[in-house]
Design a protein that fits this description.
It is a single chain. By secondary structure, this protein is of the alpha+beta class. It has 12 helices and 7 strands. Helices cover 36% and strands 10% of the residues. α3 packs across α4, α3 crosses α8 and α6 packs antiparallel against α7.
């Protein structure tokens, strides 16, 4: 609900129609069980999220251009997390949702900090196929064969599949938490992003619209590193940037018949999200202020108030660059 329809569905609605009760009733009458909607995770905008991929605000209208929906959604999550944790503390865990949130904070940290090593992680299927064999091995773990490919399972994990069972690529073969980076490598980045969204939604007990999670997850996973770049791009192997911007560049290059940039999406910890940013104001707000100032001056970096990080826009303020009462100019040098 409150999303925007992706495609025109005859007798139900047109592309970009708001999904409301009336539209849902039309779909049900037509025997349609699912509708494709636009999402922050799949928005083509290279700067922020467009109105229609975000959907309606709580007041029932689309957000204004320039409205910082990322701050609104992350603030809502933070506030709700604090409330639920406090409720759990004062009620001794009587509130089921609060208990769920407080008990799941270690997993919440895993999802937003995406550590390289996750203790007791699940083993995932590397391909679609049939489970051919599930046997214990000599070191206390298991050997699970999907088709003819062996999957080694570490000691301490328990298989959750049986011989003859059909599995999909990326599906867990054992118990344990799924490592998002591994899921992304086996399937694709979007699948891993969706997984994090669903996990976060479960942790918060379904207290938020999925698009709240999608907005936040897009903000912390919109990263890519260049594997190969044509000479005319001015980019080099190893350069980092936003996944959405690289996609935009490739769409433009495709229209001109030019070779695309090759890149690999990746997840980065929320703790280090701003460290390698080219925006000097963003870097200043990390705990590496001296380094940010020195490199910012040396490389003539600039602050982008239209970027994904809200801090430069807040620092900038409405009176940035305007004369103050003493006649001096407000600004950063």
């Amino acid at each position: 609900m409150d999303r925007v329809l992706l495609d025109t569905v005859r007798g139900v609605g047109k592309r970009n129609d708001i999904v409301d009760h009336s539209l849902v009733m039309k779909a049900k009458s037509a025997g349609i069980e699912s509708l494709k909607v636009r999402s922050p995770l799949t928005c083509d905008s290279a700067e922020g999220i467009c109105q229609k991929c975000y959907g309606l605000m709580p007041n029932g209208s689309l957000p204004n251009i320039g409205e910082n929906v990322g701050v609104l959604e992350s603030s809502a999550l933070t506030e709700r997390s604090t409330q639920l944790t406090m409720q759990s503390f004062h009620s001794g865990g009587a509130a089921s949702t609060a208990k769920n949130v407080s008990a799941s904070f270690p997993r919440l940290q895993q999802l937003i900090k995406v550590p390289e090593n996750i203790s007791g992680k699940a083993s995932l299927a590397h391909m679609d196929g049939t489970v051919k064999k599930v046997e214990p091995n000599e070191i206390g773990g298991w050997e699970i064969f999907v088709n003819d490919i062996e999957h080694n399972v570490s000691p301490g994990r328990t298989p959750i599949v049986t011989v003859g069972q059909e599995v999909k690529k990326g599906e867990p073969l054992t118990d344990g938490p799924i490592k998002p980076q591994e899921l992304g490598e086996i399937t694709d980045h979007l699948t891993a992003q969706k997984y994090i969204v669903n996990e976060l939604s479960d942790i918060f007990g379904g207290a938020f619209y999925k698009k709240t999670m999608e907005t936040v997850v897009r903000g912390i996973s919109d990263n890519a590193i260049i594997d190969e770049a044509p000479d005319d791009t001015g980019m080099y192997r190893g350069n980092k940037g936003t996944l959405s911007n690289f996609k935009k560049i490739n769409r433009e290059r495709s229209q001109m018949g030019l070779e695309p940039i090759k890149y690999t999406p990746y997840f980065k910890s929320v703790d280090t999200l701003n460290v390698d940013s080219e925006d000097w104001l963003t870097r200043v707000t990390t705990n590496r202020i001296k380094d940010a100032l020195q490199k910012g001056m040396a490389k003539m970096q600039f602050g982008d108030i239209s970027g994904k990080d809200p801090i430069p826009a807040y620092i900038y303020g409405e009176d940035f660059g305007q004369p103050n009462k003493k006649g001096n100019t407000n600004g950063f040098y």
